[in-house]
Amino acid sequence: MAKKALETQIITAGRSAKWTQSLVNPPVSRASTVVFDSVESMKKATANRANKTLFYGRRGTNTHFAFQDAMVELEGGVGCALYPCGTAAITNAILSFVKAGDHLLMVDGAYEPTRDFCDKVLAKMGVETTYYDPMLGEGIRDLIKPNTTVIFMESPCSITMEVQDVPTLSRIAHEHDLVVMLDNTWASPINFQPFDHGVDISIQAATKYIVGHSDVMLGTAVANERCWDQLREHSYLMGQCTSPDDVYLAMRGLRTLGVRLKQHEENTLKVARWLAERPEVDHVRHPAFPDCDGHEFFLRDFKGSSGLFSVVLNRGNAEALTALLDGMEHFSMGYSWGGFESLILANENINRLRTAKKHDFAGPMLRLHIGLENVDDLIGDLEAGFERLNVVLAQQ
Ligand SMILES: Cc1ncc(COP(=O)(O)O)c(C=O)c1O
């Protein structure tokens, strides 16, 4: 059979009749207890409990199994572990592969709670973290120690949006037998295929684009053959499990991921290009822009972009930014992204979250998530915001 196109896979993935009972969508199967009518069937379920067999609610039900199959089909790998949020996927993936005395390489541009986990939890356990410059390629060799076990990437990086050279870092990491983990949330399985680029474990904050409607928290970690058994069993031992209602909604979100991302991309590029021309803007930080760090890796490795990017302003301060942000009509302020709605956040001091490489930006940053609204409405909203910013700056 010919390989299915990604658009088709998004529609069909995980819809085996075994899970769906021949409905289009798998039913929401809620369970703590699974009951058996014979010793034989109980023994069989126990023997197969790690392999999508009804055994006990914590191991999942058919709703979970359908979504796990779908994620594996779309991202690659051999198995998918589910977590109550993206952060739990990150922390449990790391915890599954480190022990006291180990050393971890963490990208300097990681999502803030990922850094916090390294600094506040791993450090307490005796696991040392070295933050590395996201633009390191061959130079990563110098940071690998005899006790390094994991390299973690997030590409593009949170807020500053550097695109990493994932294949080069993965190749070098494998020469040293490290486990390669990637937070692939920005691209989703649509725009970056992690296992084609050497990743061992691909993490999604499914909370963002997969769910897509800002109403569910969920995380996934898809692993290859090398890492699946250990990831699955350690995550299970740590009691990680998810509600079938949430998983159902994630599965429903997944079906429209392709079309949503296309529209996010189109809207975002229009807004970003408009912003790049504004006198208030020093530069736009978006992987599809030629001056973005790692743009060449974006062109080489990604199929497209999504809706999250940042801009650096020429100047600004808390009062002026407040005037801009407080009056927005279509953009809301919120800590998440990946839903259908536009969001905006100010970041006055990115260097608080960077240790390997500090940035010397002209002014404060805005992080935007461009939703599915009409682009002219969004641009009009930003234009009015800049007017409010300029009024305050002129008075100072
Ligand atoms: C890149 C990235 N990874 C992971 C997460 C964490 O996801 P969750 O909020 O589901 O814990 C976020 C959340 O903003 C994120 O931006």
Automatic annotation (TrEMBL):
Annotated Gene3D superfamilies: Aspartate Aminotransferase, domain 1, Type I PLP-dependent aspartate aminotransferase-like (Major domain)
Catalysis: reaction(s): an S-substituted L-cysteine + H2O = a thiol + pyruvate + NH4(+); L,L-cystathionine + H2O = L-homocysteine + pyruvate + NH4(+)
GO cellular component: cytoplasm
Protein's name in the database: cysteine-S-conjugate beta-lyase
Protein's cellular compartments: Cytoplasm
Keywords annotated in UniProt: Amino-acid biosynthesis, Cytoplasm, Lyase, Methionine biosynthesis, Pyridoxal phosphate
Single annotated GO MF: cysteine-S-conjugate beta-lyase activity
Alphabetical list of InterPro entries matching this protein: Cys/Met-Metab_PyrdxlP-dep_enz, Cys_b_lyase_bac, Cys_met_metab_PP, PyrdxlP-dep_Trfase, PyrdxlP-dep_Trfase_major, PyrdxlP-dep_Trfase_small
Record NCBIfam families: cysta_beta_ly_B, PRK09028.1
Domain of life, source organism: Bacteria
EC number(s) given by UniProt: 4.4.1.13
GO biological process, one term: transsulfuration
Pathway(s) it belongs to: Amino-acid biosynthesis; L-methionine biosynthesis via de novo pathway; L-homocysteine from L-cystathionine: step 1/1
Lyase is among the record's keywords: yes
Cofactor(s) the protein needs: pyridoxal 5'-phosphate
Residues the record lists as N6-(pyridoxal phosphate)lysine modifications: 208
Protein family membership: Belongs to the trans-sulfuration enzymes family.
